Amino acid sequence: MDMWDTPVLETERLLLRPFTEDDLPAVFAIFSDREVNRFLPWFPVRTMEEAESFFQERYAAAYRDRSAWKFAICLKRDDIPLGYVTLSGDDSHDLGYGLRRESWGMGIATEAGQAVIRQAGAGGLPYLTATHDRENPRSGRVMARLGMSYRYSYQEQWQPKNIPVIFRLYQLDLDGQRERTYRKYWDQSAVHFVEKEII
Question: What is the structure's pLDDT at 1?
C-alpha cells in the first residue's frame, strides 16, 4: 500500500474515510457554509455542480494521485461526513481540518486530528505542521490540544480571495528532533515574526 493511499481510521466516536461521490450532499453542506469557510482560501460553493467540481479537484484528484490524506470525518452511528481532516504529502506535512457548525465545540476536530497524527507517526513522518489565520484563534487551540507548538507568524496573500492574512505556524515533531522548525513560510514571506503571547 502506498503511504499516501488514504486509509480508513476509527476512533471512539468517529470513522475517518475517503470521501466518495455519494457524499456530495455532505460536501455541499460543509463547503457552502460561509461561516465554516470564512478562514479558508476558497470561496464557499453555491450549487451542487460547484460542490461536485470542488470534490473532483480537491479530493478525487488527491486520491488518484496519492498526493495527500483527505478524510471525511463521520460519526460511526451514521457514516455521514460532518467535516474533513487532511494531511498534505509535500514537505510541510500540513494538517488541516474543518467541521459543520453544529459539530463545533464537541472535541471532534481534536479526536480526528489525534487519529491522523498516530497514523502519520506509524508511517514514519518526522513532523507535521499546521497553520491558522490569526483572526481564528479557536483553530490554534485545537493545534495546541494536539500537542503542536507555536513556532512563528507570517503574512501571505491568500488566494483566490486575494487578501493579506497573518498566519501562525504550529509544528509537532514525531521523531524526537525538537530543534527543527519548518522554515519555508518564514523564508518566503517578507513579513514574519514571533509573537510573545498567543491568545
Answer: 52
- What CA–CA distance (Å, rounded) separates 88 from 196? 29
Q: Give the CA-trace dihedral at 76, 79, 81, 87, to 10 degrees.
A: 60
DSSP letter at 60 equals I
HEC sequence for 170-183 = EEEECCCCCCCCCC
Q: Is the pLDDT of residue 20 over 70?
A: yes
Instruction: Return d(Cα 143, Cα 77) in angstroms, integer.
Output: 26
pLDDT in tens, 70-80: 999 999 999 99
pTM: 0.94
Give me the helices (H) in the chain, please. Answer: 24-31, 48-55, 61-65, 108-122, 137-145, 184-188
